[in-house]
Amino acid sequence: MSKPLYRQIAETIEKKIRSGELDVEDVLPTEQALQEIYNVSRVTVRKALELLEKQGLLVRIKGSGTYVKCNSAKHDAFQLKGFEENITSQGRVASTKVIHFQLEQAQPVIAKHLKIEVGTLIYSIIRIRTIDDEPEILEQSYMPLSLFPDLSVKVMQTSKYHYIEKQKGYQISLSRQDLKPVLATSIVAKHLNIETNYPILCLRSTSELVNGEVFEYSIQYLRGFQYRFEYIARRGLE
User: Fold this and answer.
1) How many helices (H) and strands (E) does the chain have?
2) What is the Cα–Cα distance from 93 to 101, expressed in whole angstroms?
3) Can you provide one Gene Ontology molecular function annotated for this UniProt record (predicted)?
């Protein structure tokens, strides 16, 4: 059964927003122009725009036009914050669902990143991070058992950084991050509620304590619908 025309039009416009073809504060064509572009009635166009407005992607200003709305939470790449801390500070609702949590022996690649011996016991954890109840990040984390013998699913459903710093008394120093675009596999797409091969971001990070000990290696797949990275480049002048 095919989708209603207004939903097809809404999804087409949404893809243009997600891909960056339509940027924040860009103005959309008029309703009449959209009628001609998609060869549909004005009622159909209005229903499509209303749907996108409800999703927080558009804002209509009377007498001015319909604009792409900025609805993304910001990730400051130069300030190390936990996901929950970052999102809630921007007035959004963050939540976490743990879908995999088990002990296993570190394989060579993971052991290399964690700077431990192959076969050392580690936690393997998969979490879905949501913003306002929408899945935004699929995260695979690896953490040494030796550092966190009492780590639990309950802890990983809340703030990992709060647990590390407040409960364990460790001091976090830095996170080395590598970001690149990838295409969503079928498994990632399923958890992030997107289509297979949809373009997403893959963020790999290795996090260290002040003594240089690695406490986590993680791979995050970011849908990019409600999350954007903010960089500030400064030119050093002598």
Assistant:
1) 8, 10
2) 24
3) DNA-binding transcription factor activity
Token reading at 54? 């409800």
Q: Where are the alpha helices (DSSP H) in 39-104?
A: 42-54, 83-88
Count of beta carbons in the 10 Å neighbourhood of residue 45: 24
Is the pTM for the entire model greater than 0.85?
Answer: no
Question: At 25, which CATH number?
Answer: 1.10.10.10
Alpha carbon distance 184, 195 (integer Å): 8
Q: Are residues 160 and 90 in the same domain?
A: yes
Phi, psi of 149 (to 5 degrees): -65, -20
Both 158 and 45 in one domain: the answer is no
Residues 64 and 83 in one domain: no
Q: Which helix (H) or strand (E) holds 192?
A: helix 186-192
- Inter-residue long-range contacts of 195-204, CB under 8 Å, 24+ positions, other chains counted: 199/19, 200/224, 203/177, 203/178, 203/179, 204/177, 204/178, 204/179
pLDDT in tens, 94-152: 788 999 999 999 999 999 999 999 999 999 999 998 877 788 889 999 999 999 999 99
Domain contains 147: yes
Maximum Cα–Cα distance for the chain, whole Å? 66
For 19, the domain range is: 5-68
Whether 60 and 137 map to the same domain: the answer is no
Asked whether the beta carbons of 150 and 156 are under 8 A apart, the reply is: no
Element (H, E) at 160: helix 160-162
